[in-house]
UniProtKB/TrEMBL annotation:
<dbReference type="InterPro" id="IPR011250">
    <property type="entry name" value="OMP/PagP_B-barrel"/>
</dbReference>
<feature type="domain" description="Outer membrane protein beta-barrel">
    <location>
        <begin position="17"/>
        <end position="163"/>
    </location>
</feature>
<feature type="signal peptide">
    <location>
        <begin position="1"/>
        <end position="18"/>
    </location>
</feature>
<keyword id="KW-0732">Signal</keyword>
<dbReference type="Pfam" id="PF13568">
    <property type="entry name" value="OMP_b-brl_2"/>
</dbReference>
<protein>
    <recommendedName>
        <fullName>Outer membrane protein beta-barrel domain-containing protein</fullName>
    </recommendedName>
</protein>
<dbReference type="InterPro" id="IPR025665">
    <property type="entry name" value="Beta-barrel_OMP_2"/>
</dbReference>
Length: 192
């Protein structure tokens, strides 16, 4: 009996999925980002990062439930920051799980957690010894517009929540960089 009810529920779910605006697609765009402050040695103090442009590419799925939707994404993200002329680069996999609300016509808002896995970090002229946690958690929130049936544009803000620092050794001694992103993300998406 329990198996029959489960099969009926699954079939009903697949039928509603096939008849809705649900689907999957590709996305990409630009990040306007900075990571946190860097602290170098005990005498110099903290150095703030200047925002730089990065990029992202990835895929998304969308489950539409009328005015609400769920949109999981898997995105490769490259961020850049500048610390007094020293370039810090980080590449990571972002896995946002967004819940959205269709507002009016093509306009929608969304928010949700983003799981982030750091793939690589690089600071010019410096050896990075250790990133505290390769896996971090952040928040995405933003607004989007659908441009017809297949195209979409969204603007979102992402902020990392988990404390995470990279330790490095340079000419001025040892230091740490806060690797939590704080970025505006502009994306173009294509539904396949």
């Amino acid at each position: 009996m329990k198996k029959s009810i489960l099969i009926i529920c699954l079939l009903a779910g697949f039928t509603s999925f096939a008849q809705s605006e649900s689907g999957f697609g590709l996305k990409g765009g630009l990040n306007f980002n900075s990571n946190g402050d860097a602290s170098i040695g005990s005498d110099i103090g903290d150095i703030g990062s200047d925002s730089q442009v990065g990029f992202h590419v990835g895929a998304f799925g969308k489950l539409d439930f009328g005015t609400l939707y769920v949109r999981p994404e898997l995105v490769y993200t490259n961020t850049n920051s500048d610390y007094d002329g020293d370039k810090f680069k980080m590449s990571k996999l972002d896995m946002p799980l967004l819940v959205g609300l269709n507002i009016v016509g093509p306009l929608h808002i969304f928010a949700g957690p983003s799981l982030q896995y750091i793939l690589d970090t690089d600071l010019e002229g410096v050896t990075i010894n250790d990133v505290e946690n390769d896996f971090t958690v952040g928040l995405n929130m933003g607004v989007g517009v659908n441009l017809g049936e297949r195209l979409g544009v969204d603007l979102r803000y992402e902020r990392g929540f988990s404390d995470n620092e990279a330790e490095f050794v340079g000419l001025s001694g040892t230091g740490r960089i806060d690797t939590r992103p704080s970025q505006l993300i502009l994306s173009l998406s294509v539904k396949l």
